[in-house]
Amino acid sequence: MTADALYRKNFEQENNRSLLSGINATSMVDTPITIPVVIHILYNSDEQNVSDEEIQSQIDVLNEDFAANNASSLDVPLDWINLITDSKIRFKLAQRDPAGNNSSGVIRVSSAISEYPIFDPAIYSSLLGGSDAWPRSKYLNIWVCRLEGNALGYANFPGSSANQDGVVINYKAFGRNGIAKAPYNFGRTCTHEIGHWLILSHIWGDDNNDCSASDFPITLQAIDDTPNQEGPTFRCQRFPELDNCSATSPGIMYMNFMDYTDDKCMMFFTPGQIFRMRTTMNGIRDSLKISNGHVLPNLYNSDIAIDSVLNPVRIAAKLCLDPVVRIQNNGSATVSAFSILYGLQAGLQKTFQWTGTLLPGASTQVTLPTIGVNAGSQVMEFRIIGSDDVLVNNYISAGFKVNNASTSNCSGGNLFAYPNPVTSQQGICIKSQNKQSQLSWVRVYNALGQLTSEKRMMVNPGDGIPIDLTDFRGGVYFINVEGDLYSESVRFIYIPGENPTAGPENCN
Predict the structure, then answer these.
(1) Residue 193 catalytic?
(2) Which H helix or E strand runs over 59?
(3) Which terminal residue of the chain, N or C, has fewer Cβ atoms less than 10 Å from its own Cβ?
(4) Domain boundary residue, one of 378, 402, 426
């Protein structure tokens, strides 16, 4: 979403200027750029006061999307899969404020305003109940609040006033899962709006559905690599989706980040769009390339940070994996021990205790014990637990997808399914050989990652647990046992109607 006609005129002027200056700066096109981000949280209730974890999850989503490491990019149709490209644009929470002091990059303002109208000047003014922008020459400002009419968000293009430069996101569409509400719960509203902030237009060209305009200006028609599109696309579609502007296959690019589809169906930017964003960074927003806003000015005594996730990234080939994270010591004191909690989204059920010597400024790569996952799209979370002066960098998440054809279970895993394959509609048995009992969710998923059944129960070592397959269709399924102590999955094949075997009443 963008602002009014006068504002758009200013944008077009700055657009042409940015493109010309950016095109003349071709030597910088492939240089990685890190943009310092300041998050302004304007809240009127506890729910609106989004957590540090939710904030970091949004930064994680932006970095995945702009690096083309997002799991959804794996679903781009073959016609366009060769367009998937890393923009070399990255985002990091600011670590210093405009005065040069240490900062978490997060500003929280308790406001008497329960919801803000779109383009409300109060959002950008501390005197009116909002939060003042940090200098746009050094920071990307993101305001998070409740917007009137359940609007998802909007952006201010280059050319807007300095005190309103940035994007505004509804708190219900901010971050990955958490308080974000489906179908806008994968952080893609922010990806879309930052595309506008970096000069991208909607993919249909905002031409009132008459196919007369393009999302690329005349000066860049030679690199226009998005099909002409009649209007916005809502909800998820089935490829190919055709309209009056693209009436033959492959049709419209509804999975582009600059359309209006649901978050889970947004997948990529094209090379042409990336070129436009990079020319913006080489033109009107070039000062951000030399900003030190993401560099910590003064060391804390104790500051352990999860710098990045090395595995899983984008895709996992197996139903179990060994997560790998890079830990950075940003503090002035040597670190000798810390704990890492990790697990699938909303399930930080595994703990790893690290011991060693991590000097100030040093980093270490930590491989964590094997964990079982399910087929389909997943999110893994990691959190450092320990004495630390800075908590905002103790959490990170990683989105990835497990191929539905994956057949390799955890080697030496403690969860078994029998008989396997199973040919009786009565059911299948599972048994856990973990050494501890736990209150667990026992869930069954089909090959598409869809939940088909679940029950809450105590799982004891060595117990045979029956799983009823009544009304199940034949195919590949996955059983996941998840609790506070462990989470493991096992794959089984159901072939109904052939050589019936003993039912679940015979589990032992």
Answers:
(1) yes
(2) helix 52-67
(3) C
(4) 402
